[in-house]
Amino acid sequence: MTALQPTLDGAVPEPARPRASDYQTWVEKVRPVFEEIARTGRRFTSYEIANERKLEDPPLPKTHWGTFIHRLAEDGLIEHVAFDETERPGGNHSVVKVWRGTRAARRGRAA
To answer: Which residues pair with 100 in a beta bridge?
Structure first.
């Protein structure tokens, strides 16, 4: 187990999420989770789902998460509906896209 260094205020940070070694294998693991969420019509950010479901990060999180989410949109599974501030630790309230399942996904007809 890796030791975590407390911050200056004494708080102990959350341990880093595990990281996958292969992008395609990672996609095969996490896509079913996002397909399930899309069928519900719930609004979400990728971080919310990854955090709630304890999903591992892809090999290159800064680029692969965006690539994956935009691929889901291209496949007609999700659609952009709003912007919000990120809840990701260290995100400094940057703006992120909010998504939801498309009408086709909610009816079980999306890719």
So the answer is: 79
Residues 27 and 18 sit within 8 Å (Cβ to Cβ): no
CATH, domain range 23-106:
1.10.10.10
Cβ neighbours of residue 103 under 8 Å, at least 6 residues apart? none
SS3 97: strand
Q: Write out pLDDT tens, residues 81-100.
A: 999 998 877 777 889 999 99
Distance CA 34, CA 93 (A): 23
Tell me how far apart the alpha carbons of residues 79 and 95 are, in angstroms, rounded to a whole number. 17
Cβ–Cβ under 8 Å, residues 99 and 73:
yes
